[in-house]
Amino acid sequence: MFYREAGQFKTSYDADSQIFPIRQDRIGVALMLAVAFVVVPLVATPYVFSAILIPFLIFALAALGLNILTGYAGQISLGTAAFMAVGAFASYNFVLRIPGIPLLVAFVLGGLCAAAVGILFGLPSLRIRGFYLAASTLATQFFVVWCLTKIPWLTNNSSSGVITAQKLEMFGYAFESPASKYLLVLCIVLVLALAAKNMVRCSIGRSWMAIRDMDVAAEVIGFRPMRTKLTAFAISSFYCGVAGALYAYAYLGTVEPEAYNLDLSFRILFMVMIGGMGSILGSFLGAAFIILLPIFLSQFAHGFGLPNSIASNLEAMVFGALIIFFLIVEPHGLARLWQIGKEKLRLWPFPH
Amino acid sequence: MAIAARKSGDVILELSNISLSFGGVKALTDISFDVREHEIRAIIGPNGAGKSSMLNVINGVYRPQQGAIRFHGEVRTDMNTHDAARYGIARTFQNIALFKGMSVLDNIMTGRNLMMKATFIEQAIYFGRARREEMEHRRRVEQIIDFLEIQHIRKTPVGRLPYGLQKRVELARALAAEPKMLLLDEPMAGMNVEEKQDMCRFVLDTNDQFGTTIVLIEHDMGVVMDISDRVVVLDYGKKIGDGTPEEIRANPAVISAYLGTVH
Amino acid sequence: MQFFLEVLLGGLLSGVMYALVALGYVLIFKASGVFNYAQGAMVFFAALTCVGFSEMGMSLWLAAPLTMLVMVALALATERIVLRPLVNQNEITLFMATIGLTFFIEGLAQLVWGSQVHPLELGIEDVPLQWMLDRTGIAVSQFDLIAALICAILVAALAVLFSKTKIGRALRAVADDHQAAQAVGIPLQYIWAVVWTVAGFVALVAGLLWGSRNGVQFALTFVALKALPVLILGGFTSVPGAIVGGLIIGASEKLAEVYLGPMVGGGIEGWFPYVLALGFLLVRPEGLFGEKIIRRV
Amino acid sequence: MTGGDPGDTFPRLLLQHAAVRGNRPAVREKDLGIWQTWTWSEEAAEVRAMACGLAAQGFKRGMNLAIIGDNRPRLYWAFAAAQALGGVPVPLYQDAVAQEMVFVLENAEIEFAIVEDQEQVDKLLETVERTPQLQHIYYDDPRGLRNYPHDRLLALDRLLEIGREFDRANPGFYEQSVAAGQPDDIAVMLYTSGTTGKPKGVCQTHASLLAAARGGRDFDKLVPEDEVLSYLPMAWVGDNLFSYAQALAAGFTINCPESGDTVMIDLREIGPTYYFAPPRVFENLLTQVMIRMEDASKLKQALFHYFMGVARRVGADILDRKPGIGAGDRLLYALGNFMVYGPLRNVLGMSRVRVAYTAGAAIGPDLFRFYRSIGINLKQLYGATETCAYVCLQPDGQIKLDTVGLPAPGVEVKIADNGEVLVRSAAMLKGYYKRPDATAESIDPDGYFRTGDAGFFDADGHLKIIDRAKDVGKLAGGAVYAPNYIENKLKFFQYIKEAVVFGNARDMVCAFINIDLGAVGNWAERRGLAYSGYTDLAAKPEVYELIKTCVEQVNVELAADPMVADSQVHRFLILHKELDPDDDELTRTRKVRRGFVEEKYKVLIDALYAGRASQYIETMVKFEDGRTGKVGADVRICDAKYLPAAPARKAA
Q1: What residues 205-234 of chain A have any CB closer than 8 A to a CB of chain B?
Q2: pLDDT score of B4
Q3: ipTM reported for the complex surpasses 0.90
Q4: Total CB pairs under 8 A between chain B and C
Q5: Which of C28, C91, C92, C283 to mutate to test binding with chain A, by most A CBs within 10 Å of its CB?
Q6: Architecture of the domain made up of A44-347
Q7: Which residue from A264, A327, A297 is spatially nearest to C111, judged by alpha carbons?
Q8: Could you give the residue range(s) of every CATH 3.30.300.30 domain in chain D?
Q9: Taking the model in full, what pTM does it have?
Q10: Which residues of chain B have pLDDT under 50?
Q11: Is D652 helix (H, G, I), strand (E, B) or coil?
């Protein structure tokens, strides 16, 4: 309805392959960025920042990471939280043990550690596929959390394994207020999301999708399965690692290894599934959905005067039912719904 | 007119005494033949004759237990599929093996992966070499799209295309690699007459315009006899004939294999 | 040596229980191509329901069959609501659906019966078997032995069911080729319902045996996670694989915990079986009893 | 530069554009996935190379250059290249078969041809023994031509290289050639198909084409920022005017589609600001719109129909900026514009259309009104190859559904005694090529060109074309009788597929009707009317009622116009069979063979004029397998209401 595409023709491949080829979309995105950077910091309350927006962005980043691996490269992983944990604890240790290291560098190094772990646990993917791989990624989950609990050095000999993330200080500025943390996280997430979008529209993204869709053919046209899968594991884990670090530094503050449990892995997986496999946008939509649903449900439960335990069980049931619902009705998730809606608007008033 | 003007060059692929078996089941037995540069070489034979296995040996999907493969004069018996791709061997599959979740354009772009040199970091920031490469290869891919007349579907997800067009996209993906040698596994299977004619034209044009050597498996005898320069006939994993279409047509062993009972 | 045997035997006995749970997976996987992640949740659900019934004053002999009825209902509902609409979807989608199912069942169980720990008493004492201790000096839990025995009988019964009966044959036909089986008149939906019911039964038994040891609580769902390495090792489709794999995992897990654990701080039961199974897979990707797959192009 | 006013020949205009707006796009072509663009200076350079190449190959002043192919930049440049050398481009219809091309190739003594691709090369080579003088064929697309061992063939790329070399070796040659051109030189030769006899080559000069082009440019205020989609055959005068002459006159950009199949997609992408299409294109688009809307949800359909109703009521008036539209309607229209018209224009690719023209055939008033009501400034024009398609234009804001507008600036139009439209202007042919007889016949001593069309001016001075002059007759009462005009009016109803009217030298007009089986069948199904086939359906009283309302509506329209008020249809019948080319009732192009029909159905005509209520008739029909059979039926005859002729008759 809003789209007026007649006359938006492309005279170069550059213009044809831009991320938002339609002018109206570019305007929409610009507006959203303006809202995110200008309007939100002006109007949002600290509660909204720290209970909704910051975790939303962090989870979106983790979901993005998992989406690269599962949605684009077709390798199922149930160990997302483990990679997040590696990122968080590695960053913690870098800051702790290398005095004066810029926090941003520590995050990147944390991400790289996660990537290294990702490569290590991605190795089985070369020999095994499908469910075997899914089941084996659980090993990552258990092993990493076990390591963090059992090796005191990693948690700076904290008796309970709990660490307290160092102050969020960058470029000589202490990010203390929720709004400032939000803006920091927003910047990091946007940069990484852009990078992810760039990768998936380039050769490396095509290699992932090729391996996902038809691995034999991918090999025959010259993709190396090992390299492709391991880069997917590495890059995915890097994203998860950075998300994990932000989770600790910008969201929780104090964190124990158990915070990165299987449950978190599943939540991220749900974000990807509900948001849409193989879609950058889907990672954001999924994260928003999974963040908002419990809030909505607990409001709902409060409204009916239900105790918390019932609310949390209800939440699990609703999650479960929604997953099944989405798989049956729209296996490609919210992103596809969005896409369909957009197509409808582009074709409006015609149905097809 | 086009065929008459074509001229075959030196031998570029030589298979000698190839034998292949799977767990004791012999798929290919002691097969030798060669392929000359720029020619269209057909492999024919009844079902289960080992034709696809033969192609799989040529591009390194299977490794023969015995025998040698020489490509451009060098022994390449131990190559894997990736090596084969690097040496300039591309192929299409009997059952379409496109990447279903990607658009036609992206599918064809994958064919050029070996020529893309940008690192993933460059790709992530989409700057400099990565961007330049995308544009350059896009231009080449567009020429192939133009060549195969699939402009109208370039942004369609391949899963939505009818069978005949999918076959064409698969050919496009193979051509995108600018192969020296193109292996086509039943490129015209399941097509109607019109689609077959188109495909024949594309195969001939490819051979003609790019000088690509083509090895093809095809069931349609009319097509094979029309477009190939030389034909190899397999039956039960053994070679029973080799020569020009005329020679093959006159070969008693071939006739009996095809007619079955004439002994 | 005695200690080693004791550990080994204890491991093997729990291995039989792993095998039982693993068999639940194998059954469903063979019949419907679904890697049923919800198997653990079903164990939890079954045990909780059974305990719930008995807490309402029923005897175990009444509660168990009643629970079985509930499990049948659950199986039928799952087939109708989840599986049937997803027929012909790829396996990953189905797997994801069972993850959704997991959450739903877990939520439902706790919503109905509460999330506290429910003690469960089956009437078998968890004391070393005197007879064995006297003869060999090896202490083996009487409970473990009986539990293992029950599991063994069940495993054997399932193996027979799978290979000898008519329904077993139909089941294998379905496993080989859905469409072909349908074409020759095997009712797919019926087979699925049966298989899920059997899986529910397996879950009930496993849930009761495990629950009586540590009480019925949420941690029961992790029993299922124990069965996953068994599957990796034995293959998703192999009945003997599940049995042998269960024994191997059970034994090696206990041995590793006892002999390796202290060196690295203990608690390695959680991940050791996975690493073992993975290590094995890297050497032999087709699993214990799998056939080498020739990739056709 | 020497000689002549810069800008009085096309090559000189091109140089001027290259100098004034060298970096602005002159032409685009969808090729290899994107709109490849050439600026005016690039175009000028290419034309220069092509001209020099042709010269190097022996192309001389006065020679004719055949141009055959789809709309492609290099073929347009070939026009300019030939003109730069003082030669004459002769575009041929690209879908003509080889045999049809031979006549033109022989008649125009073609020695040089620039063609698109293998297909056209094949056609030219096919008849090579009949056109021995055709020694140079240049092809744009080398696909499939690599191995053609033909010494007459050369790739256009190669020609351009030769041209560049020649240019370097002969500096000043091109400038001299361009300077030597005169406005009165023949700029292009267009062959008219001609309903009878052999095609004739219409010679238009630079001056005549430019007069038409500049007239149109000033009339519609075309500017260099305008965009057109060039997709109509290059051999047709319209394309030559819109895509070549006006582009050079106004300096706007032409856009060539990727292929014939992708025109609609390319139209959407480009979103032209200046658009031309024959009525059938507009009709197909509208049909598609309606079909696609049928699948829409009920809510959307309701929305669509509601706002289309608003548009019908006020849309055209708002477009014409007529006063007296209430604020409420304006608001509704604005809302509709956002919800329906805007998106619709967008989907049709006409969001940016500032001026759109249709011509070539009568356009149905509903069709015409539809486009205008959704805010597309669609207008009609009237012209012929001989007048550079430039005679009458509808000015913005003065749109009438059934006229072709006012005489264009610089054009004199008068009506001959027999009703034929006569035209005199600067944009007229110099003559028919090698046919002084035909030239003399079509231009009268006063310099007026006989269009062959019959028409008249209405009260506001708008020209109304009613028929071919030779078909126009008189009723017994002496009033003008134009059968086509009436038949077209009838055929604009979707229910009427074919109509044949009678009335020449009779006292009243009667009509045969063929119903449209699809549309009427649909209509019948919706009201639960069962029928077994065409004959059955045609005889239904309900259908007669339906058609009667259509006929009476035509009568109302006719009555409003004093010139044709006497031609109201008094009686009609619905034929029991469809008129069919197999039965020789229609030509293969589906035009009615009036004489044949008149003879074959004489019984029915007699019955119509005898005032009978029905008539039995048996007719021979040919079945698809070639057998013949008889179809008999009682055909009912129906009287239609007609109005008394308007009293304002004297005013005409």
Answers
A1: 205-207, 209-210, 212-214, 216-224, 231
A2: 39
A3: no
A4: 9
A5: C92
A6: Orthogonal Bundle (1.10)
A7: A297
A8: 473-639
A9: 0.87
A10: 1-6, 261-263
A11: coil
